[in-house]
Design brief:
InterPro entries: DNA_bd_Ku70/Ku80, Prok_Ku, SPOC-like_C_dom_sf. Helix content is about 25%, strand content about 30%. The protein is of the alpha+beta class and about 270 residues long. It starts with a strand and ends with a helix.
Length: about 270
C-alpha cells in the first residue's frame, strides 16, 4: 500500500511514528473527450482572453479574488513561508470524544495509519486504549498545505484517521429552501410508513451493494470493443403512473416487499394472540 505521508501521532507525551495510506479509492470510469472527426484526444490550453495568447506556467501567479475582478496577488515565497510554519509532520490529538457525537456530515476522507520504525508498541497501546474507552481522538494535521481537523479511531485492527470539515465549512440547514416546518402528518400514513421501514430493515452488509452504473458502463465498453450492437433495457417505473396519492404509494410499496414479519409486526401478532 502506497505511503502518502510520514510523521507521528502524539497524545500527551506519547509520540508514535506512523505512515499514512489512502483507505479508499475512486473507481469512477474515466472518459476522454475526442475530436469527433478524427478521434484525436482534445488538448486544453491556458489562454489569456485579454492578451489573446497561450500563457506558459512560469507566467502564471496565484491570487485571491476578494471582490468582482479585484485580486490580491500572493507570491510563492509568501505561500511557502506559511506552508513551512504549519507543515509540522505530526498528528496532534487534542482531545477525546464519542464517535456518535459527530454528525456524519462532517466526515471527508479516510486514511489508514500504520506504525513506522519504532512505533509498534505505542501504536498497539493507543489502539487498545481507544477500543476499551470507546472514544476517538480529535486531532489536527496539515496535508498538502491545508490544515485539517481529523479524528483517529480503530477500524477492524487498524488505526484510521478521517479528516473532517471545520464547523464554518458546513452550511447551515436553515438556509435550505422550502423545508416544511409544521406540516400535519396523517396518522394512518405514518403507521404505514413505519411498517414499510420495519419491513425493509436489515443488518447493514456493505458487500451486497454494488455500483450498477459503473458495471453497466464497463459492460457497454466491452461490447463496443467487440463490435456488438447495444440496445437499452427499459426499466419498470418504481410506482405505477396512476398512483398519485401518498397512501396508495405506501400501500403499493408494502405489497412489493416480500419479507418475513419483522420485530414490530411479530410483536403486534403476539399481542393479538395473547
Amino acid at each position: 500500500m502506497h505511503t502518502i505521508w510520514k510523521g507521528s501521532i502524539s497524545f500527551g507525551l506519547v509520540n508514535i511514528p506512523v505512515k499514512l495510506h489512502a483507505a479508499t479509492e475512486d473507481k469512477d470510469v474515466k472518459l476522454r473527450q475526442l475530436h469527433k472527426e478524427c478521434n484525436t484526444p482534445i488538448n486544453y490550453k491556458k489562454i489569456c482572453p485579454v492578451c489573446d495568447r497561450e500563457v506558459k506556467n512560469e507566467e502564471i501567479v496565484k491570487a485571491y479574488e476578494y471582490a468582482k475582478n479585484k485580486f490580491v496577488i500572493l507570491d510563492e515565497e509568501d505561500l511557502e513561508t506559511i506552508k513551512k510554519e504549519n507543515e509540522e509532520k505530526a498528528v496532534e490529538i487534542l482531545e477525546f470524544v464519542k464517535l456518535e457525537e459527530i454528525d456524519p456530515i462532517y466526515f471527508q476522507r479516510s486514511y489508514f495509519l500504520s506504525p513506522d520504525t519504532g512505533g509498534m508498541k505505542a501504536y498497539a497501546l493507543l489502539r487498545q486504549a481507544l477500543k476499551e474507552s470507546g472514544k476517538i481522538g480529535v486531532a489536527k494535521i496539515t496535508i498538502r498545505s491545508k490544515e485539517q481537523l481529523a479524528v483517529v479511531r480503530v477500524y477492524e485492527d487498524t488505526l484510521l484517521m478521517e479528516t473532517i470539515y471545520y464547523p464554518d465549512e458546513v452550511r447551515s440547514a436553515k438556509d435550505v429552501p422550502n423545508i416544511p416546518s409544521k406540516e400535519k402528518v396523517v396518522q394512518k400514513e405514518l403507521e404505514t410508513a413505519l411498517m414499510l421501514i420495519d419491513q425493509l430493515t436489515v443488518k447493514f452488509d456493505p458487500e451486497k451493494y454494488h455500483d450498477d452504473y459503473r458495471t453497466a458502463l464497463l459492460e457497454l465498453i466491452e461490447k463496443k470493443k467487440a463490435g456488438e450492437t447495444v440496445t437499452a433495457k427499459e426499466k419498470e417505473p418504481a410506482i405505477p403512473p396512476d398512483m398519485t396519492d401518498l397512501m396508495s404509494a405506501l400501500e403499493a410499496s408494502l405489497k412489493k416487499v416480500k419479507k418475513k414479519p419483522s420485530g414490530r409486526k411479530r410483536k403486534t401478532q403476539e399481542k393479538k394472540e395473547a
